[in-house]
Write a structure and sequence with these properties.
The complex is a heterodimer of chains A (305) and B (645). Chain A has 305 residues and is mainly α. Chain A is built from 12 helices and 2 strands, in the order ααααββαααααααα. Chain A starts with a helix and ends in an 11-residue tail after the last helix. Chain B is globular, with a radius of gyration of 27 Å. Classes of the chains: A mainly alpha (305), B mainly alpha (645).
Chain lengths: 305, 645
């Protein structure tokens, strides 16, 4: 009897663990594409919010006519909007050579204001969207281990990203533009195109993280739905030393802490407010000892070609 | 070159002035000219220059205020604008006269509108109508009459920029170009958002015709923007704006100071929280007399922020880790500690419960109340307004202003102290003359606004400290040198690591001082405590303010007040329009930051030109490489395009 109780708790925890990891993993893989191409992307937070908003709104507006297909269209919308927002960041940072942190900050600020304006216009509420009847389906087994497709997508993307980064010409070019854009350019690589692609891919992935939050986990968009996930993902990217496998391990670690604080927050085991800060403390320590040498050399520098 | 273009505007300034005047000229006809009034939902009763009145309110009053004088003035205004266009295209040196006359005519027309509105309001009040029933209170100019003022101003500035004697003076304001253009562009973006989201407010039962739609949309944009900046026109709302501006100034200075040292401080929210925690610890628990407690609490607030910023500075100096990431991490750590301390009065660890003393009784997450000695009074109390009906004069504020203006105007005129005597005389005379007109009577609305001593004595003094420290002390020079060129600074014998830490300590202290506003000044809800509702997001607004203020102390103060006004105006937009909320202000702020990031799409030639000083001293065929001078100037500006390491 007690064994059964424990395994239920364990399975529930495992489910929470996977769900806390997913958005972090997607966003941090997104950050990977952008930063390895040489563009700092602190706009991840904002892109997640825009992705979540687009998915929730498109699903809600189309589900009457499309039914079960609506959330898939919502996911597509989340990716497209994520890509579009990232593209704005790319134009500022690549074409206009803006300070990438400032441009990212502007997008994060937009992500605070625009949802309020839009939700109020569509749903007459500035804090949440109408909840959707058709969220993304749940696949899996048992009661606690059923996940929406973005979860599987996230873990598959780790392998895909690893393959793209290290086994394809595109990956080589992407890494080269992040390390030494001039050298890459001298070998005939179009630094601008590669960087645009990197940043837009980061938008697609971070947008998907938002999609998971709004229609893969909850069933509506709420204000500040991301609550800092984009920044934690950025931390995971650094903690994982800008590699796909590192991202996976770092987000698993951070996801574990998030799951701990979700699962045991209300109980008398751990003070959840302090447990939640652990990923950040780890990141600071990791950054102190490994940070600078691991970062792409040209990250944050506009390319003057 | 002909005689009169010698001192005329540059071709670019001429084209600019001509096109703005052209828009204003068209605007007289294609935009509403004036507003008679508005009902509660913002629907307007409009006057067109050609085409009579346009009523969206459905009230259709029997008599309207008499706008005939203003309408008559439109025709000389039209003529004057035509002259501006012609003079701009021909680049005449006297363009400024035409520009000025357009401005004056337009302003006279606006004043005439207000006068006739007031006459009608007085008449209605005399008939016993209640004030809130009178729609004319919201009347005034509209887009058609406002644009000529702008066009006139642009013409004057364009004209002066061509004159040798004025060029140098205007050149000093060139750094304001990017913020101004960014604000303009974001106004355009905001207008598109407004039109997408909000339908033309109207109380009519029939659908609007195409013409009504057009004028209605133009009026809507004017209505939103004029509502947003309206708080500058009355004392209670302006006080509220200053209330909102106080923490913005401090967090803006925090971000700006770090910018000056070549760092990006996204950690103001965390530093605010730590400042709040330390101020609370001292203000609530340290038993001291008020004389000592008050300053110690202020120091504690600064210390909390300084600690949080200093850690990041140390990490950067010692390990070279990016302050961008670390400040973000420190924000979350601070908010974890904050919730831990204030959110509950006990905490659990592995099955045991341990008590925590900081949270006060009750559901709300808040600390105990500060001791009386640590509380800051409101500014209203400080000038003697304690209860409804008390009076005080603000003439001395005008006096100080005149003092400053005279002192600046007479700079370099006298060798001895006469400049200060004249300035003091001017200030005293102004104070005396304005004593009666500037007397205010406290009403409930004004008294409930918790604009407190920390605006003047902490925020403004911090700006003064910022200016003096960075530009008048050796240490400040070192900080700036490190910010501009760390390698060169190190080569010149400056300790880069030490200055990096110092800069983050001071930046953090500025943000920490917001606690004097929130905790000691009870700015949130009149409670003198540390509250979980502390709006630490203001720390992010600090970034916006620092960018808009181009990291100068007075730029930060001005943009903070500007945003404070917009935030206050946003509350009225919330009330009056159904679909549009104050989130539009956040959108405006975000787009301003974005446009500043891309330098307002302005070219390097405009934002970073060869300085004018270069032409003064050396002869014309000076062999000095102009590229060097360009570099000096570039070094003088904040280089935001530095690598974010």
């Amino acid at each position: 009897m007690e064994d059964g109780g424990n395994s239920v708790i364990l399975l529930t925890f495992l489910g929470t663990f996977v769900r806390s990891t997913t958005p972090l993993l997607l966003a941090s893989l997104g950050g990977l594409y952008s930063e390895r191409s040489g563009v700092v992307n602190i706009a991840l937070e904002g892109i997640i919010i825009f992705g979540a908003l687009a998915a929730a709104v498109v699903t809600q507006l189309t589900e009457a006519s499309l039914g079960d297909a609506a959330p898939w269209l919502g996911w597509l919308a989340g990716m497209v909007v994520g890509a579009f927002v990232a593209w704005i960041h790319a134009i500022a940072s690549i074409k206009y050579k803006a300070n990438q942190v400032i441009s990212g900050t502007a997008i994060n600020l937009l992500a605070i204001g625009v949802p309020g304006v839009l939700l109020n216009a569509l749903y007459n509420s500035s804090s949440e969207s109408k909840s959707v009847d058709h969220a993304l389906p749940l696949w899996g087994f048992g009661d606690s281990l059923r996940f929406s497709p973005p979860v599987y997508f996230a873990f598959v993307m780790v392998i895909v990203t690893w393959y793209v980064m290290y086994k394809t010409p595109f990956g080589l070019r992407l890494r080269a533009t992040g390390e030494h854009p001039k050298a890459a350019a001298s070998m005939g690589v179009n630094v601008y195109t590669i960087r645009y692609t990197g940043v837009i891919l980061s938008g697609v992935l971070a947008g998907s993280a938002g999609v998971f939050l709004s229609i893969g986990f909850l069933s509506s968009f709420t204000r500040n739905i991301s609550a800092g996930l984009g920044f934690i993902a950025l931390a995971a990217l650094i903690f994982g030393k800008w590699t796909p496998l590192g991202c996976l391990l770092a987000t698993l670690l951070f996801g574990f802490f998030r799951a701990l604080s979700v699962q045991y927050g209300g109980t008398d085991v751990l003070p959840s407010s302090l447990v939640e800060t652990l990923p950040f403390i780890f990141t600071i320590i990791a950054l102190a000892f490994t940070g600078k040498s691991q970062a792409p050399k040209a990250v944050g520098q506009p390319y003057e070609g | 070159m002909r005689q009169d273009t010698a001192q005329g505007p540059t071709p670019f300034a001429g084209r600019l002035s001509a096109s703005v005047a052209g828009v204003a000229l068209l605007g007289l006809f294609i935009f509403p000219y004036a507003t008679y009034g508005r009902n509660f939902g913002g629907a307007g009763l409009l006057q067109l220059l050609v085409g009579g009145t346009l009523d969206f309110t459905g009230i259709n009053p029997a008599t309207l205020p008499d706008f005939s004088l203003s309408l008559l003035l439109a025709w000389p205004l039209l003529l004057s604008l035509l002259v501006v266009i012609w003079a701009s295209v021909q680049r005449k040196s006297w363009l400024w006269i035409a520009g000025l006359s357009s401005m004056v005519i337009a302003i006279v027309a606006i004043v005439a509108l207000k006068l006739s509105l007031n006459l009608e309001i007085d008449r209605l009040v005399a008939t016993g109508m209640r004030l809130n029933k009178i729609i004319y209170l919201a009347g005034g100019a509209n887009l058609g009459l406002a644009l000529p003022v702008v066009a006139g101003l642009v013409a004057v500035v364009s004209s002066l920029s061509g004159m040798k004697s004025w060029k140098g003076r205007l050149e000093r304001f060139r750094s304001a170009l990017i913020p101004l253009v960014s604000i303009l562009l974001s106004i355009v973006v905001g207008a598109v958002v407004i039109l997408l989201v909000q339908i033309v407010p109207n109380s009519l039962t029939v659908p609007l015709s195409a013409i009504q739609q057009w004028y209605g949309k133009a009026d809507l944009i004017w209505f939103v923007y004029s509502t947003l900046i309206a708080p500058i026109t009355n004392l209670a709302d302006f006080s509220r704006s200053l209330l909102l501006a106080t923490p913005l100034i401090l967090t803006g200075l925090s971000v700006a100071f770090a910018f000056r040292a070549g760092m990006f401080n996204i950690g103001a929210p965390g530093q605010m929280i730590m400042g709040g925690i330390f101020a609370m610890l001292v203000g609530v628990y340290v038993p001291l007399p008020a004389m000592l407690l008050l300053p110690l609490t202020v120091v504690a607030a600064a210390f909390g922020g300084a600690l949080w910023g200093g850690i990041v500075g140390w990490l950067k100096a010692r390990f070279g880790s990016s302050e961008v990431i670390n400040t973000i991490m420190m924000n979350y750590i601070a908010s974890g500690i904050f919730v831990f301390m204030i959110g509950s009065n006990s905490f659990a660890f592995l099955g045991h419960k341990y008590p925590l003393p900081f949270k006060a009784e009750g559901f709300e997450g808040k600390s105990a109340e500060l001791q009386a000695g640590a509380k800051l009074p409101t500014l209203a109390q400080m000038i003697g307004l304690d209860k409804v009906g008390d009076t005080a004069s603000l003439a001395w504020v005008a006096g100080l202003l005149i003092f400053g203006i005279v002192a600046v105007a007479l700079q370099g005129r006298f060798k001895d102290q006469r400049r200060w005597i004249f300035a003091a005389l001017g200030g005293l005379v102004a104070t005396g003359l304005l004593w009666i007109p500037f007397t205010i009577v406290a009403d409930g609305g004004l008294l409930e606004i918790r604009l407190n001593a920390s605006f003047v004595f902490i925020a403004l003094l911090s700006a003064v400290f910022f200016a003096v420290f960075l530009w008048r002390t050796a240490k400040g020079y070192e900080v700036r040198a490190v910010g501009l060129a760390p390698k060169a600074a190190q080569y010149g014998g400056i300790n880069v690591a030490q200055n990096t830490i110092l800069a983050m300590v001071i930046a953090g202290a500025f943000a920490g001082l917001t606690a004097t506003h929130y905790v000691m000044g009870a700015a949130i809800n009149g409670q003198f405590n540390l509250n979980l509702s502390l709006p630490s997001n203001v720390g992010f607004d600090g970034i916006t303010v620092a960018l808009l203020g181009q990291s100068t102390p007075w730029g930060v103060v001005a943009s903070s007040i500007f945003f404070g006004v917009l935030d206050t105006g946003g509350l009225y937009v919330d009330q009056k329009l159904d679909a549009l909320t104050r989130d539009i202000v956040t959108v405006l702020k975000a787009t301003i930051v974005f446009f500043i990031a891309v330098q307002g799409f302005l070219g390097k030639k405009v934002t970073d030109p060869t300085p004018i000083l270069e032409h003064k001293d050396p002869p014309k065929d000076d062999p000095k490489d102009p590229k060097d001078a360009h570099k000096d100037d570039a070094a003088n500006d904040l280089k935001l395009n530095k690598k974010v390491s």
